[in-house]
Records
---
Amino acid sequence: MSALSWADFTYVLPATSLSYVLVAVIGHFRLHEEISLTRWLGIALIAAGVGFVAVGPSVTPSRSPGSSTNSARDALSREAES
């Protein structure tokens, strides 16, 4: 959850879903687990969703090293008002 300090929640949450993909791939190739076609389709859907979110626009403002959270929040509110 430390990723939430540098990225949007709408980006971090889908990215954590990649753990399902990673566990399935490791299980299949290293542990020789049997994975059904339905599960592979679900894994592909998860990967596609994460890819879709990853290429989308980011709304996280870049912060300079000395800036505070309040100034970033103020910038977002000014941008929303315009």
Note: The radius of gyration is 18 Å.
---
Amino acid sequence: MPSAAAARTVASATQREAGSAQTGKRSGGRSQATPRRRVTPRDKEAATGPAGTTVRIGVISDNHGYLDPTVVGHFAGVTHIIHAGDIMDAAILTALEKVAPVTAVAGNLDTGELAERLPREARGEVGGVRFLVGHKPKRLLNRLSNGKIEGERPDLVVWGHTHTPSAAWIEGALYLNPGTASSPEEEDDGPTVAIVEVGAAGLAVTFIPLARRA
């Protein structure tokens, strides 16, 4: 688990999310977040897929019932997809599952079937990297720092809810908010999703902007 100091650092980082996602180099409209510290997978061979291809993880949150049709293309070829909640339409998960296996959690606006079907937080491992995902950062980080989430320390921690993309490397782990995939509120940043690449050198993140709905 992260230290108490690290938990406070991450909590503070969530309040500065708007600025942190804007750092890094721009390439083709995409924002490439440059890590201060990279995460190195324990199993170097696990970081590559068939024929030595780099493992890529699609990360998405806060669809609010809408899946931008370009997301499927952006996520084409990913090894796994992580969804941090507020899906609000089960058909979105069905569409994403046709692209790659999906690990998803329920957000505070997910009700009915989605609320019953999905956990509030979930763990997994892909490409030798252990990940943890929840919807609300305050709850997730408090539970993680207080040892209330069982399992080994994650390398990648994902949340949504705030509608603001961010990436922070704390004590060797990547803490990531992919932003909202739908920007339902006028004051929201533009919609985004993220892709995490898992290579022998560690983790790299690219934020992909989506078109705002009219």
Note: DSSP finds six helices and twelve strands in the chain.
